[in-house]
Amino acid sequence: MEKQFFWSRTKRTLRLVTEKKDGTIIRRTIGPTAIEVATLLLFLLVVAVICKFIYDSITIRDARKTIIEQTAALNDLTDENEALTVENSTLSNKVAVLSEAVSKKAEAEDVLSQETIENALPKGFPLSGSATMTEAEEGDPMLIFSASSGINVLTTGTGTVEVVDADEIYGTKIIIDHGNGYRSVYRNGGTALVKQGESLGKGYILFSIGKDNQELGYQIMLNEEYIDPMTMIEING
């Protein structure tokens, strides 16, 4: 079977001639309308391909631009993250140093607080030198010291002068409030060397012992009750 195509330019038709093995000839004619439709479809297909190519080109260009911008942004974020990591490390070191400093300060304050509490307890010896000591036989618990001239009567702990007043037996009475429920009482015939309201440290001079005031009556109160001074007093030597 042979096929032959013939194109008629004048009529714009397409003839298809087919010869079979038995010699029969078959002629088919494609009219101008079908050719125009096919041409239009082909044109539309070419236009569609071109538009698709242009669209893909624009899309690829925009995608590349977006990738470049995202890459730049990622690099900026990476640099910023590295900078923040370094800054965080620096701040962590500073925090560690400050924490250590605060811890040391807290320890120092705790030690100081303990020393303050300890110093406020009336545990010291009430005289600057040696003296004979007896315990009062009657009345509230009291230690009676007899000292030589030149020796001073001292505060046995830090506190505030609460009372400076006359004493019926000894002449003058000084009461020190230690701020922890304790009060120390000093009875002597000398002139008081402190005034009411004064804040005193441990070992401050309250009286100076002379020939006329060699005896000291010493007492300790806890929560308004007299206690035995021997349970508190520290005697060295």
CATH topology of one domain: Glucose Permease (Domain IIA)
Q: Biggest β-sheet: count, sense, barrel?
A: 8 strands, antiparallel
pLDDT average, as an integer? 87
Coarse shape: rod-shaped
The named CATH superfamily of one domain: Glucose Permease (Domain IIA)
- Taken in chain order, the helices and strands follow as EEEHEEEEEEEEEE
Q: Which percent band covers the strand fraction?
A: 25-35%
The parts where pLDDT drops under 50 for at least 5 residues are none
- Gyration radius from CA atoms, angstroms: 57 Å
Question: What does this entry look like structurally?
Answer:
The protein is an alpha+beta fold and 237 residues long. Among the domains are: 2-30, no CATH class; 131-231, Glucose Permease (Domain IIA) (Distorted Sandwich), CATH 2.70.70. Helix content is 38%, strand content 31%. It contains one helix and 13 strands, in the order E-E-E-H-E-E-E-E-E-E-E-E-E-E.
